[in-house]
């Protein structure tokens, strides 16, 4: 059973989400919150598998609430729900540690499958869409060049990777699927999945979305 905390400042939106989720045999809503501060408090008390997080709320917004929930070290994962798929707030939500995002007019099946994916530890954002978002908001990426060299500042997270893992992280950042990676490197998909798992473990990335952000941050991938 996947437990979900619904966070949205609009009561009717929360009601709609609850009706949908509670129609599923494998999901249960453990709480609702109308602002970010309440979301952080309830996440700490209820330990939901997934927080369905709105962004624009009075007081503490969904981005800061996401950051605090993720920073707590809890197993709870956050799924951002926003109005636009290419929106600066969604980008900031991913940077804050969300495991993905959906737009509010997504089909019910998309929302349900997204929640299940996040609960299982996967990212719900297609790699190509993640890259499109990062390309759009590349000006927010931190400067990582070493002073006076123009070269990227060495990142200790990359130093932990083998050469093959670094190659795979690069193409993950370019939006490649596991199937495409397997074909390119002549590997079984199960082997690719093992490499991806090791990359996440070694770099501390929570999921594939965070791995894409890492590839951009460290300039393994240059914006198109």
Automatic annotation (TrEMBL):
Pfam families in the record: GerE, Response_reg
Origin species: Streptomyces kurssanovii
InterPro entries linked: CheY-like_superfamily, NreC/VraR/RcsB-like_REC, Sig_transdc_resp-reg_C-effctor, Sig_transdc_resp-reg_receiver, Tscrpt_reg_LuxR_C, WalR-like
Modified residues (4-aspartylphosphate): 54
Domain Response regulatory residues, every copy: 3-119
Keywords annotated in UniProt: DNA-binding, Phosphoprotein, Transcription, Transcription regulation
Name the record gives this protein: Response regulator transcription factor
Ranges of residues in domain HTH luxR-type: 154-219
PROSITE patterns: HTH_LUXR_1, HTH_LUXR_2, RESPONSE_REGULATORY
